[in-house]
Specification:
This protein is α+β, with helices and mostly antiparallel strands. It has one domain: SMI1/KNR4-like (3-Layer(aba) Sandwich). The chain has six helices and six strands. It starts with a helix and ends in a 29-residue tail after the last helix.
């Protein structure tokens, strides 16, 4: 899967950051009291996100591990702008357990993975597009990466995901939902 992601980034002219060192995972886990699941660790061991300001052809940017923070830190109360993220820490259940790892088009929306101290806990990825607008995008970080590797357009908006696991080979022409 990593090879597909790497080729996609290369086509977009993005050179990923070198993989994160083991110490970075230890520091992250200690700082936040969480365990970094194997699928998250594997991704960041291959590439520690993208360089600052870089994005792929769909305008998705993946943050380095040192830039991954809980939702209330990245989108704090009073955060006004387009979109207005004010209130997401109340609308998203257990928002402090979701860590923002990527964004679309300079934070028009963001992606966050749920992390916990329990290494067996589920780590769904949510799409957040405003103070009260969020949706589960993938059941796990690994599923999110699989969808992204197959076709990055599948993760741009919740409607862009295939309905069934075998449907990923279908070309989707999905436009964003307007409020």
């Amino acid at each position: 899967m990593w090879e597909l992601i790497q080729r996609h980034w290369e086509r977009a002219g993005v050179s990923p950051n070198p993989g994160a060192p083991a110490r970075a995972f230890d520091d992250f886990e200690r700082d936040y009291g969480v365990r970094v699941p194997a699928e998250v660790r594997e991704f960041y061991a291959h590439a520690d996100g993208m360089p600052s300001g870089a994005s792929d052809g769909e305008l998705l940017s993946f943050y380095p591990l040192a830039g991954v923070y809980p939702v209330p830190v990245v989108l704090p109360t009073g955060h006004r702008g387009l979109p207005d993220y004010n209130g997401i820490e109340h609308a998203l259940p257990d928002a402090a357990s979701y860590f923002v790892f990527a964004d679309y088009s300079m934070r028009c929306h963001v992606y966050a993975v749920r992390l916990s101290a329990d290494p067996a806990a589920a780590c769904p990825v949510v799409w957040i597009a405003g103070g009260d607008k969020w949706e589960v995008q993938a059941a796990s970080f690994g599923e999110f990466l699989r969808l992204y590797a197959e076709d990055p357009g599948q993760v741009l908006f919740p409607d862009a995901k295939p309905a069934e696991p075998g449907a990923a080979d279908v070309t989707l022409n999905v436009k964003p939902r307007l409020p």
